[in-house]
Design goal:
With 81 residues, the protein is of the alpha/beta class. It has one domain. Helices cover 21% and strands 25% of the residues.
């Protein structure tokens, strides 16, 4: 699919499972783009990756988490680097 490797790291992630509360609210994800020296130039820009994965309405992870959390999780402060 892509000529780059995408690493998804969850930062600022607070889990309250001990108390019975799941993750909700603003959830920050950092998507780190990596390119190997022997790989061709990536076809996608960081903005395109952010659009696909972190914006709702694109079928990406933002839509998935929004749907399974009944709208309680959002990725508003996430970024692609």
């Amino acid at each position: 699919m892509m000529n780059i490797i995408i690493l998804l790291l969850v930062v600022g992630y607070h889990i309250h499972d001990v108390d019975g509360y799941g993750v909700r609210g603003q959830t920050t994800w950092q998507i780190i783009l990596c390119k190997f020296s022997d790989s061709p130039t990536p076809q996608y820009t960081p903005a395109a990756i952010k659009e696909k994965f972190l914006n709702r309405g694109t079928g990406g992870i933002a839509d998935y988490w929004h749907d399974i959390s009944n709208g309680l999780i959002n990725f508003g402060s996430s970024s692609v680097n």
